[in-house]
Amino acid sequence: MSKAVRIVWDDALTSYDFGPGHPMAPVRVALTMGLARELGLLSGVDVAGCRPATDEELLMVHSRDYVAAVKEASATGRPALAHGIGTEDNPAFLGVHEASALIAGASLAAARAVWSGEAEHAINVAGGLHHAMPGMASGFCIYNDVALAIQWLLDQGASRVAYVDVDVHHGDGVQAMFYDDPRVLTISLHESPRTLFPGTGYPHETGADGTAVNVALPIGCGDTGWLRAFHAIVPPLLREFRPDVLVSQHGCDTHALDPLAHLMLSLDGQRRTYAALHELAHETAGGRWIATGGGGYEVVRVVPRAWTHLIAEVAGASLDPLTPTPDTWRVMVKELTGEVPPLNMTDGRHPVWRDFADGYDPADPVDRAIMATRKAVFPYYALDPMP
Description:
This protein is α/β, with parallel strands linked by helices and 387 residues long. The chain is built from eleven helices and eight strands. It has an eight-stranded parallel β-sheet with strand order 2-1-3-8-7-4-5-6, with helices on both faces.
């Protein structure tokens, strides 16, 4: 059982709103917190607010010119195209700086809680904006809250921080910010850059001494292949790296229903990943775990249920997948979206997978992806790439 848990939340986190029709709809986090609340997961844990990240804090990972450009766009609503603001992906809107700085502040609050010992685990479901670059907005992301939390931990004295990103898109912004820093291990499992934005995340991108790790999975990969790849790569590397803190990004756009990508996971497979990261946090990082949300664009049937399972896992709660969704939450869904809500907390799947130690199949595209990554990085850790 986990010790103290911090859930960072403020209703103002839903102000990160690119407007009608944009995939990054803030209702997805509102429905997540509503579902978690109605299921009783927020009782008995510390739900705390946060303040926006200050300019000085943002400058730990972003350029001064970029922060100034975001603030200008925030005040005027005018694009800053040289910095990626005002595009179809990242529209300019009044208040964009304040909304983005609050998400960054929420991940900083989670990091402070864990590093200080106030909490063993902490979560910011509104966070996980992993595409933002030092001087550029990208992929619906303005400020890179996860990179900011990692840099803050390093500045406080953490000697090693591990970052595991299970979003369907490559965690390119976080990788870029720490690519040459051997204190930070970044592991990203994602759809192949040959078929999906941002076009990076190949196995040969290995960073400083193998501390950038990329598993590029083929389109159509489902629970079985995903979990096989995860367990073939993530546990052995975390056990060798032994981080002071584990930071994870949980984009749920790997789901089969997500409209922006091409993997085929179920809620049940995603839930297995959350449980595995929880166990690894205790095994390799002394229990210190900071979790965030991320991508996920099926905003009724997938995101709220996936991240409610994540909140339950972080909180050490037991949430039966067959649990019905509460009537009060179903009413909330209909009022906010007009859509028909899901009736329970499962997709009805029971994922099983073969351990990679059972053998490598060169005819299997998932196995080829696993082997490409293991060959690229395992020698840095004196690990045998072969099963």
